[in-house]
Amino acid sequence: MLTIGELAAYAGVTVRAVRHYHAKGLLPEPERDHSGYRRYDASAVVELIKIRSLAEAGVPLARVRELLRADPAEFATAVADIDERLQAEIRQRQQHRERIARLAAGDNLALPPQVVEFLDHLRALGVDERIVQVERDGWIPLAARSPERAAELIARKRVQIAHPPLIDFYLTLSEALDRTDNDLMLIELVDRLAAYLTQLADEQGQDHVSGDIDPSLVELLDTLAFDTAPPTRRLIELLNKQGWTGWTELVRSAPK
Predict the structure, then answer these.
(1) Which residues of the chain form CATH 1.10.1660.10?
(2) Of 67, 148, 204, 237, which residue is most buried, by most CB within 10 angstroms?
């Protein structure tokens, strides 16, 4: 006969674990002997090892008793069910790990990989980081609210960015950010921006350059852009004189 400490040692668990299994009703608790100690026989060792093995395999304690009493067919069915649940948990944890990795990766937070790739491409082209941040901050709410629309728009952007005029547009924006109002180069840069927008609108046969985004979201995205890169407000004022209004949704009107 074994003491609780000896039983725990044989089964490779702690005394605390044995008491926990008693409390859960998984392992019968023997009566005390005349000396006041609980004594365990060899069958308790076998039973405890089975409990430990099931618990280490990831079987919830609530189901251990069921498996201990199951016949071979019932045991196999229960194990398959538990394995399916564990696989689902593994997939969920992997998703959590991927999200944690995105948290540590800056732009990857809350953004689809295609958008992150686009932002990295802008940086590689030499686009000012403030413009990249404006793009990033705009894509985050757009991807969260309308993931399908965001996927469509970024696919279009990835095609367009291969065209020199759009690259020039981004680089011109970058160059214009730090120009003062009395800098003649600023006017020239705005002329180039307006010319590109006009070309793009003419190619599309419409009077706007947009992604048909919900108006309430457009207002939010415009605010984000102006907060992220305040000089964009001045650019919008100058573009307005060239006949273009808006930022997220650029609309052609009569020049002022």
Answers:
(1) 4-102
(2) 67
> What is the DSSP code string of 145-192?
H-HHHHHHHHHHHHHHTTSHHHHHHHHHHHHHTT--TT-HHHHHHHHH
| Stated length of the chain | 256
DSSP 61-81: HHHHHHHHH--HHHHHHHHHH
Whole-structure pTM value: 0.52
The CATH number given to 4-102 is: 1.10.1660.10
The pLDDT tens digits along the chain (256 residues) read: 889 999 999 999 999 999 999 998 899 888 888 888 889 999 999 999 989 988 888 888 888 888 888 888 888 888 888 888 888 888 888 877 766 655 555 566 678 888 888 998 999 999 998 888 888 888 888 888 888 888 888 998 888 888 888 888 888 888 888 888 777 888 888 888 888 888 878 887 777 776 677 777 888 888 888 887 888 888 888 888 888 888 888 888 766 5
**Measured CA angle at 133 (ends 128, 134), to 5 deg:** 100
